[in-house]
Write a structure and sequence with these properties.
The chain is built from 10 helices and 12 strands. With about 325 residues, it is an alpha+beta fold. It has a domain of about 110 residues. The strands form 4 sheets. The protein has a 4-stranded mixed sheet. A 3-stranded antiparallel sheet has the order 5-11-10, with no helix packed on it. Helix 5 packs across helix 7. The protein is globular and about 55 Å long. It starts with a helix and ends with a helix. Bound molecules: S-adenosylmethionine. S-adenosylmethionine binds next to strand 4, helix 7 and strand 9. This is SET domain-containing protein. Pfam families: SET. It comes from Liquidambar formosana.
Length: about 325
């Protein structure tokens, strides 16, 4: 797998995004139980410009109802503050136990997750971000936690500071920018007090903070692990983003290019951890755009329109909205 930084710079240099997306999947030969497996084939999709919704994801061949279109690993993930002691600090898998809320360390579900998180978690541990956490907790903010994690990943060298630049940013109001500047001050001073070298946090400017948060606002997924049978999950097409039991939030590369439809043909689901699966809800023809539903599809038309306009900045003109449903 290419490091995040290299992956994104490859992205930026590729005019043909279809080709670029081949790099989001392992290009090396896999080994499993001593058996040599051939490299996974690229997913049957490409990213291209749509007529009115910016970039979107299109099928390169026919995809059958129920097919797994592709899986996606988070670029950055973080548990909800309320779930910090009950889910894996990296992959968000629910734990069979709840750790002591006074404990100094956070839980990982496996040695592998602990090992993978080790480098950036060492940075996180050095920094006393209690004031930042309190600020987020009292205001019910979840996305700043993803920014802090990304900052720690950049400092530890496992991510590049421009790794989210390719994603679409939200339009920010003056009020949002003011709020973000306050958060930024708290985060920056936590890093400075932790004696992290100036050169290592040179990227952590007000502009970087607002630009990353603006991208996370539009592209982060709220992750729920409802349990139950995989087949049952597939039947429930509505993305229940309003439910209260989110284990955390995460940002992905490829899923960030999916546009919205109130009657989607693709569903994004999480089964055991933050690794996402995108499944076709019906037959999709080659050339057709793949769309997911960003909100709870069971809401009425006015509620959907309001949420999409306020949260994502667009007026939905999908066939379902046009029909008045
Ligand atoms: C997660 S991004 C999807 C990819 C995006 N089109 C891009 O070019 O990166 C979400 C943004 O895409 C646009 N978008 C998504 N679905 C749309 C739709 N049905 N109609 C108009 N714009 C849409 C909106 O600007 C929204 O904020």
């Amino acid at each position: 797998m290419l490091p995040l930084g290299r992956l994104v710079s490859q992205f930026k240099n590729q005019k043909n995004l279809h080709f670029a997306f081949a790099f989001t999947f392992s290009t090396a030969t896999n080994h499993h139980d001593g058996v040599k497996l051939s490299p996974p084939s690229p997913p049957p999709i490409r990213v291209a410009l749509t007529e009115s919704a910016g970039r979107g994801v299109f099928a390169t061949r026919r995809i059958g109802a129920g097919d797994l279109v592709h899986t996606a690993h988070p670029l950055v993930s973080h548990p909800s503050l309320s779930a910090i002691h009950s889910v894996c600090y990296l992959c968000l898998r629910k734990l069979a136990f709840v750790t002591d809320s006074q404990a100094q360390s956070v839980p990982f579900c496996s040695e592998q997750c602990g090992e993978q998180a080790k480098v950036f978690y060492e940075v996180e541990r050095k920094v006393d971000s209690s004031a930042y956490d309190d600020y987020c907790r009292t205001r019910g903010l979840k996305y700043p936690l993803l920014v802090r994690r990304l900052a720690c990943m950049v400092i530890s060298g496992v991510a590049s500071s421009d790794c989210l630049d390719i994603l679409q940013p939200a339009r920010l109001s003056d009020y949002m920018i003011l709020e973000m500047e306050e958060e930024f001050g708290l985060l920056r001073s936590a890093f400075t007090k932790a004696n992290i070298m100036d050169g290592q946090i040179a990227f952590l400017t007000k502009q970087w903070y607002t630009s990353v948060l603006a991208r996370i606002r539009i592209n982060a997924f709220r992750i729920e692990l409802p349990g139950g049978l995989y087949e049952d999950l597939l039947k429930s097409a509505a993305a229940s983003v309003e439910a209260e039991d989110a284990v955390g939030n995460a940002v992905y590369m490829l899923p960030s290019f999916y546009n919205h439809d109130c009657d989607p043909n693709v569903h994004i689901i999480w089964i055991e951890n933050a690794n996402a699966r995108l499944k076709a809800l019906r037959d999709i023809e080659a050339g057709e755009e793949l769309r997911i539903c960003y909100i709870d599809a069971s809401m009425d038309r006015d509620a959907r329109q309001t949420l999409l306009c306020e949260g994502f900045g667009f007026q939905c003109c999908c066939l379902r909205c046009l029909s008045g449903d």
